[in-house]
Amino acid sequence: MAEILVREAAGSEDVAAVRRLMQAYGEHLAVNPAGAASICLEGYERELEGLPGGYAVLLLALVDGEPAGCVALRSLKQAEPACEMKRLWVDGRFRGLRLGRLLVEEAIGWAERTGFGAMYLDTVPTAMPEANRLYEAMGFVRVERYNENPVADLAFFRREIRD
């Protein structure tokens, strides 16, 4: 059985691993038949070069010590203490191990420990239908647009972190 670990990215090696995973995520969006997702990647190379940049935390999933998935969280400037989940990605070689769910669970746990009351995300539903099903299964509900992302066909989700 594979040894699976999800942890905060710490140090330059972990950040480099997250960068590689996020590059694969960007490549997936760029060639995805959904099309509209490519606009999400404006300035993406700059974002990757500057990691961790504006993210409050980068979470890294490892399978038998090999980088397998990642997710990033950043604070949102809103009336409520809220954060946004970005760049959830699992390398195709590691799909089927429930890493996406584990990364989202860890992200929610981190947000709760940090004092956030809600978590938001935006996604292109046609680009990653499996992710959308995961979000709904994890208690995220669709909401109105909360940001200024220029992509027209986005879906917006929110999840309460604490009661």
From TrEMBL:
Keyword Transferase among record annotations: yes
PROSITE patterns in the cross-refs: GNAT
Cited Gene3D superfamilies: 3.40.630.30
CDD domains xrefs: NAT_SF
GO MF annotations in UniProt: acyltransferase activity, transferring groups other than amino-acyl groups
Residue span, N-acetyltransferase domain: 4-160
Key words, A-Z: Transferase
SUPFAM superfamilies: Acyl-CoA N-acyltransferases (Nat) (SSF55729)
UniProt cross-references to InterPro entries, sorted A to Z: Acetyltransferase_Enz, Acyl_CoA_acyltransferase, GNAT_dom
PANTHER family for the chain: FAMILY N-ACETYLTRANSFERASE, PUTATIVE (AFU_ORTHOLOGUE AFUA_2G01380)-RELATED (PTHR43305)
Protein's UniProt name: Acetyltransferase (GNAT) family protein
Organism: Edaphobacter aggregans
Classification of source organism: Bacteria, Pseudomonadati, Acidobacteriota, Terriglobia, Terriglobales
